[in-house]
Amino acid sequence: MEEIKSPAAPQIQIEIDEATAQGIYMNLAMIGHTENEIVIDFIFIQPQAPKAKVRSRVITSPSHAKRLAVALQDNIAKYEARFGEIKVHAEPEKKVGFYN
Fold first, then answer.
1. Could you give the CA distance from residue 87 to residue 43 in angstroms, rounded to a whole number?
2. pTM above 0.85, yes or no
3. Count helices and strands in the chain by DSSP H and E runs
4. Which is higher by pLDDT, 77 or 49?
5. C-beta separation of 57 from 40 below 8 A
6. What share of the chain is helix, strand, coil (3-state, %, to 5)?
């Protein structure tokens, strides 16, 4: 009897330019959604600064956002297993952090 093999998943080559590879620092994220999209704005707010700018905006589907949330949870669990629990402090009076 001959074994039926499923086709292998195609290999995806991902490239990243130097500027993108440098990354950006952010300490605030704002998340909004419609029925079909989830929008995540990544923001850096400086202490005592009266305003901040969105440094990057990601627009994705709800299913991709859910897969991202699962991947983040998995990576945080692996991080904490290796380096210890990540402490989350109480919200400061001036709200800086992640909101939805």
1. 21
2. no
3. 2, 4
4. 77
5. yes
6. 25, 25, 50
- 44 within 8 A of 30, measured Cβ to Cβ: no
Residue type, 93: E
Asked whether 26 and 55 are in contact (CB, 8 A), the reply is yes
Q: What is the pLDDT of residue 8?
A: 78
Q: How many CB atoms lie within 10 A of CB 77?
A: 10
CA distance 59 to 33: 9
Report the 10 Å Cβ neighbour count for 38.
Answer: 20
Characterise 84 by phi-psi region: left (phi > 0), alpha (psi -120 to 50), beta (else).
left
The 3-state secondary structure of 64-82 reads HHHHHHHHHHHHHHHHHHH
CB atoms within 10 A of CB 14: 4
The backbone torsions φ and ψ at residue 79, rounded to the nearest 5 degrees and listed phi first, read -60, -50
Tokens of 16: 């990243």
